[in-house]
Amino acid sequence: MRWIDEPLARARGRTPRELLLLAAGVGYTVFELTSEAPCWPNVVMYASATIAFALRFFPARAIGVGVALGALAQRLPDLRYGTAELETPHLWIALAAIAVLSSRDLEARFERAPSRLRWLPNAWAALPAADLRRLRWCVYALAALAAGLGYTWGVPFADTGVDPRLVIGVIGSLVALIALLAAGRAPALLLVPLVTLPIAAMLGSQVVEAEGILAGRALPFLDFGLWRWPAFVLPGTLLALLAAGLATPYAVRLLRRI
After folding, report:
1. Residue 73 scores a pLDDT above 70
2. What is the pLDDT of residue 257?
3. Backbone torsions φ then ψ of 18, nearest 5 degrees
4. Is residue 179 within 8 Å of 62, Cβ to Cβ?
């Protein structure tokens, strides 16, 4: 299927793969906007990924994967209740998007190519392959964690009884880290454990109770407003620990150089 990565002169050098992803991004954004009750955080995610791709912003491919993983983070935990989630198209569309985005050609065109923005050079291109993979996977874990917590807390409308300052602080910190890493600011990995380990502690303190709720052994009550979606508490804990684990070795190396 080499044709899917062949540049098209009529599309200003874009490949069929890029055009497919752009069409999917626009379609999903319009679908969300025209639904009866638009989820505005999702609109922002889909639109941001689509615009980044249209501008050929160097982290656009990774942002797209992060958005798709965020969508999965809002779906896969429901499989703990049963298999009904497998019947929804959103799950399969997210998986298909990840498959299309997982392309060496796209990596060369985005992560390893010169930046199209003069004021923001592509810092990713200068990173060793191992460090770039670590940075990308850290972005993916943070994106899935932010999406899952946002869904758990019903951002921005649901009243889960959680302090709004906690929601704003946690989600805002995760989004800020994603933005810094997407811009190629690898030193932001120093901050990742400082943000994700407290989140892991918060979620981890509720794992036993959440698993009890899922097993029908406990009443549906959890601290920190997590009662709305107990299925995400354990996966969220693991995602927070994964992000911290990915960032810590790089952070230690940076500190040794100081």
Report:
1. yes
2. 76
3. -65, -45
4. no
Query: Could you give the C-alpha distances from 205 to 163, 201, 247, in angstroms and in order?
Result: 17, 6, 22
- Measured CA to CA, the distance from residue 193 to residue 216 in angstroms comes to 34
Let me know the angle formed at the C-alpha of 241 by 176 and 167, rounded to the nearest 5 degrees. Answer: 45
3-state SS class at 89: helix
Residue 154 backbone class (left: φ over 0; alpha: ψ -120 to 50; beta: rest): left
- Tokens standing for residue 57: 């912003």
- Let me know if 238 is exposed, middle or buried by CB neighbors in 10 A (0-12, 13-18, 19+): middle
* Amino acid at position 184, single letter: G
Contact criterion met (CB below 8 Å) for 105 and 20: no
Token duo for residue 211: 């698993």
Residue 5: other Cβ atoms inside 10 A = 16
Indicate whether 151 pLDDT > 80: yes
The DSSP code for 233 is: H
Rounded distance between C-alpha atoms, residue 205 and residue 227, angstroms: 13
